[in-house]
Amino acid sequence: MSKRVLIVDDEEVIRKFLRFRLLQWGYEVSEAMDGADALNQLNKGDFDLMICDIVMPNKDGWELIKEVRSSPRTKDIPVIVLTGKNKDSDMFKGYELGASYYLPKPFTKGQLLYGIQLVFKGDSDSINQIDLSQQ
Amino acid sequence: MKDQNRKKIVLSLRWTVIIVTSYLLFFGKGRMTDPNLGHLFILAYIFSNFILIFLPKAWFYNPKFFYLLVVFDTGIVSLGMYLSESVTTDFYLVYFLILIFASMSRNLKLLMVISGAIAFLYGLLLYSWGLLDSEQSVSYALRIPFIFIMSLFYGYIIQTFTKESQHQRALSEDKYRGLFENDNDGIIIMRDVELQIVDVNREVERLTGYRKGELLQRSLFELFESAEEGRASNYFEQVLSQGEARTDSLSLIRKDRAPLEVDLSTKRIHLEDESFYQAILRDLSEQRRLEKKIRQGKMNFQAVFDGIQDRLSIQTPDYRILGVNKAVMDHHRTHENELIGKECYEAYFHKVQPCEKCPVAVTIETGQPASSILKISEENTILRVFSYPMLDEKGNLLSVIEYIWDITEEQRYQEQLIQSEKLAGIGILASGVAHEINNPLTGIIGMTEIALEEEAFKNHPYLMDILRCAQRISEIVKGLRSYYRTAKKEEYSLVDLKEVLEDCLKMVRMTINPSKVEVIERFQSIEKIEANVGEIQHVFTNLITNAFQAMDKKGGKLGLSTQSLKDWVEVKVSDSGMGIPSKYLNQVFDPFFTTRNPGGGTGLGLNVVYRIVTKYEGTVDIESEEGIGTTFTVKFPIRKEER
């Protein structure tokens, strides 16, 4: 059964690009436009991974991660942080809040795939067999 | 007799002389043989007196006219006596006796007494000889008033001359005395040969402290200091042999034993047929004091002039150097003799005409202060030059003061400051826009990659270009980040530069494939430095990346070395690549400067290196030769706590 990934980003083009790649790699994809929308979806369904942006309207990425980690229902969902905020301090903050991987924008599909595989490392069932060297 | 009525008196006396002479002619002893001659004589005499009436008064005060009149009257009276045929008589003798007495006499009253006595004696003789009882008694008797009148006439004339001469003499003496006493120089009159003082003026009394009476009859020698005797003796030997001599300075001893330096000038003079020496003493103490003051003032001025560390010179309105301070001589490594008299532009800058924008030219033209900044390409310096006019009381330009302030360092510092502020501004801007750029950039890169995977667009050149450009923007944004991203002290640790170099080399090797590059490592054991490891990695990643890129695909040798200097640790990164043209060497650390083709580099790498190294108070230098290679030398200071 495919892993379910929730994409959270206010930029439609990025959501589009991520959906294309994740579908291409065999993941099931849902999209949210901001933090509030994401929380809503997380409460409704089960997800194996959340890829989220930081700077978003309504509820930003930091708030979202905090709430995800504080809820028993979602606290174990791995989170990949995608952000244009490239300061080291942002990255540290992301890890402190419980991000599984921090991916600064812009990134290539290879970097994205590497991040996803790193998150699902050890979970052989959940890693889609994609050859990274071919990407 | 009042001298003011000289004309009147002379005329009156002459009338009496005419009357007595006429009496003599017509009632004289001999009686005239030809009475017409007597008439003619009297008429001529009367006529002469009438002429005198019409002559101006001033003529009677003219000695030449007065002498002429006396000679005329003496001659005409003698002629009258001749015509009266008294020549053969003793009367003529009496007349000449009167003339002799008159010429010898200085005193009218005495002359009148003598003349009266002669007239009386003559009358007594005439009486004793019985001539006054003869038939010619009238003629003889007339001689007595004649003698008296003539005495009076000549007496007046003699007195007039005497008075005049005395007056002139008194005037001349007063004048001399006044000049002598009031002279600003001391004057000593000495008798010839013995040099015995016979007169001194007031200034000598003031200078020597002696009263006139104490100096008279002493020798001038006695006033000299014993140490000066030899010089004084030589001086006066010269005076005696040559008649005059002058000395610049001799020391006298004042009455109060204080020394007195004087300038002495002595000359032989003649006063009333006697030979004297006149010595003129000029007090040099005031002059010496002024000279000392001027010397001191000059020294003070020179001390101030030389004390100013910037270059100062004084120039004429035709640019000729009149004086320079020590800073000018030090700067040009020359002596002032080599500069004075030369045109400033030639002496200072080896030019044949005044420098462009020279403020001295403005001051010469306007008489006003001026300043400008001159870039002297020959010296590679930037100078701020000020010029100030030196004017006389009428406001005419005498000379120009030129003040040269070398601002090369300040200017460079200023430029660096502006540059770093500019970069900081870019950093702040980049920080703000980085996020905004990165989001769409992610979209561009991601979507372009997707498009390129489509069968129809696989390896499409336009899409490939879009991807490359987007990746380049991504690099620029990352590069700009380093302008605002700076590690805090808390993020510092002790960094082993050798380890950093090895890590960086591994990392760069993973991104660039430098298979043909031989790496030569010469690592000495060096002290660790306190820094943020990420930043130091950034420095050497950039330098090693540059080295690999410089060697391109041809390969070559990459040298990495560390060594410990006294207070520094030094790291060298060298390559055997293409090298950098010398004209670009002073620009390589400028932001956005790159010699690579467009798209080949952001031009930020070396600037980031420079910024990080200088942040740690280190230095980074470059040596490069085209076709041979490039070496970057990075030095970090070692702080005591790091040892």
Q: How does this model look, in words?
A:
The complex is a heterodimer of chains A (135) and B (643). Chain A has 135 residues and is α/β, with parallel strands linked by helices. Chain A is 40% helix and 17% strand. Chain A has a five-stranded parallel beta sheet with strand order 2-1-3-4-5, with helices on both faces. In chain A, β3, α3 and β4 form a beta-alpha-beta unit. The two termini of chain A are 23 Å apart. By secondary structure, chain B is an alpha+beta fold. In chain B, the strands form four sheets. A five-stranded antiparallel beta sheet of chain B has the order 2-1-5-4-3. In chain B, α18 runs antiparallel to α19. Chain B is rod-shaped. Chain B has helices spanning 6-27, 35-54, 63-83, 91-104, 108-128, 137-182, 202-208, 212-215, 229-242, 285-307, 326-332, 336-339, 344-349, 359-366, 408-453, 461-484, 497-511, 533-551, 605-615, and strands at residues 186-191, 196-200, 244-253, 259-271, 274-283, 311-315, 321-324, 370-376, 381-391, 397-406, 493-495, 517-523, 529-531, 556-564, 568-575, 619-625, 629-637. In chain B, a hairpin with a 5-residue loop joins β9 (381-391) and β10 (397-406). Chains A and B meet through α1 of A and α15 and α16 of B.
How do the helices and strands line up, and which of them pair or pack?
The complex is a heterodimer of chains A (135) and B (643).
Chain A: E1 4-8, H1 12-24, E2 28-32, H2 35-44, E3 49-52, H3 61-70, E4 79-83, H4 88-97, E5 101-104, H5 109-119
Parallel strand pairs in A: 1-2, 1-3, 3-4, 4-5
Helix pairs in contact in A: 2-3
Chain B: H1 6-27, H2 35-54, H3 63-83, H4 91-104, H5 108-128, H6 137-182, E1 186-191, E2 196-200, H7 202-208, H8 212-215, H9 229-242, E3 244-253, E4 259-271, E5 274-283, H10 285-307, E6 311-315, E7 321-324, H11 326-332, H12 336-339, H13 344-349, H14 359-366, E8 370-376, E9 381-391, E10 397-406, H15 408-453, H16 461-484, E11 493-495, H17 497-511, E12 517-523, E13 529-531, H18 533-551, E14 556-564, E15 568-575, H19 605-615, E16 619-625, E17 629-637
